[in-house]
From TrEMBL, chains A, B:
Domain HTH tetR-type residues, every copy: 9-69
Domain of life: Bacteria
Keyword Repressor: yes
Classification via Pfam families: TetR_C_6 (PF13977), TetR_N (PF00440)
InterPro entries from the UniProt entry: BetI_C, DNA-bd_HTH_TetR-type_CS, Homeodomain-like_sf, HTH-type_TetR-like_transc_reg, HTH_TetR, Tet_transcr_reg_TetR-rel_C_sf
Name of the featured protein: TetR family transcriptional regulator
DNA-binding interval(s): 32-51
UniProt keywords, alphabetically: DNA-binding, Repressor, Transcription, Transcription regulation
Length: 206, 206
DNA sequence: ATTCACACAACAACCGTTATGGATATGTAC
DNA sequence: GTACATATCCATAACGGTTGTTGTGTGAAT
């Protein structure tokens, strides 16, 4: 029984949620046409209507993951160092939603690494994320909260740290509860702050 | 044509290498009975003889990944801080072999995260790795190269950093060539060293 | 004679994809 | 407004291909 025009947008939202539920339940490796269809209470005929091919489904799922992650409620970022901290905290699996999102995210790496095109897409995505972080770092440096040094380099390091912490927290949630993750992040940030400026010798010369 | 008894161990080694080649070529998602069999120039009959079920193959592949990673030629570890640095460098995808190994490793996370049992296995594996790192950190602290502080906490942070760097380097090899990875790691270690001791106030009181 | 190490063949289940057809909405002619 | 052509939305069913698994048979080793 087809829907009316007014219901069409609602149906699109239903499809999104079905895709999300499948991803959350079985990861990216378990993302199949039929799984989404049955999760939707429909058949593959509907799915092929929205996604002519499997790759379309995968790309859509990747976009969905990106969108869902981006539209997650963010901390109200302050300025300088606290903005950096907030941005990094927002990545970590501190809530149930963030955990689900991160789990899907990590599980997508298998698919992404196997496909050069998707791999490039991911590389660009991470590069953009690093750029945003770099700007925050540069701002924290200008406010004097962070010692001098290539902001891009510091951002790359911070992103690595958070990324790795995500993975460890996903595999061992009891070992890395939210407060421990925040603790470790604060350790990292404290180390960054305490670092003597390498490029900028003013503090030494004065 | 069956083999003789003397060839049996050789055959087991052949199986290992076939599994490894399949993993290297198609990742963990492409690990199938038939793929390994054809890679071996044999049929599935042989495979089921060595691995009665798929799960056995997967578990074996996970173990193989662990073994191959562990038996990779390691840097001759010095003492104290240089030992910590060597251990962390050994994880990074700095060589072709290490890149292949790490790629397989990351691709296995999809499978592992979808299966609670495998997930636990990984958690234990990482915990053991953190423990070894913790001992190295503690040694570096005793030699005075690293400020005081919970060595387990420092090890967890360092492991996170390296893990995340691995992921980023795999997706953007041109952005993270070997020397840049080493650079970033050294930045991290420098920050660790420069950190004033939190628990131990001696330096301040003197 | 029994066990082992395989080849070979087949199975049911699942995958992505395609074709067919029917129900509903939309547009157009009168 | 009514009548008809067209397009959209979706169920149903089937296709060939691949998967994990099982069973049978056969030659060599013990």
């Amino acid at each position: 029984m087809p829907r009316t025009k007014g219901d069409h947008d609602a149906r699109r939202r239903d499809v999104s949620e079905a895709v999300w539920r499948v991803l959350a339940a079985h990861g990216f490796g378990g993302l199949t046409m039929r799984a989404v269809a049955t999760e939707l209470g429909a058949t593959t005929g509907l799915l092929t209507h929205y996604f002519p091919t499997k790759r379309d489904l995968v790309t859509y799922a990747l976009d969905l993951l990106d969108t869902r992650s981006a539209s997650r409620p963010r901390r109200t970022a302050g300025t300088g160092m606290s903005a950096v901290r907030a941005a990094l905290l927002d990545i970590l699996p501190l809530t149930g939603d963030a955990t689900v999102s991160n789990r899907i995210w990590v599980s997508s790496w298998d698919t992404a690494l196997a496909d050069p095109e998707l791999s490039d897409d991911y590389a660009r995505k991470y590069a953009r994320s690093r750029d945003k972080l770099r700007d925050l770092v540069a701002a924290a440096q200008e406010s004097g909260e962070l010692p001098a040094g290539d902001p891009a380099r510091i951002a790359a390091g911070a992103q690595s740290f958070v990324l790795g912490l995500v993975v460890q927290a996903l595999f061992a949630p009891e070992t890395f509860p939210p407060d421990r993750q925040a603790e470790l992040l604060d350790d990292y940030l404290a180390a960054l702050v305490s670092l003597p400026s390498p490029n900028d010798g003013r503090a030494v010369r004065t």
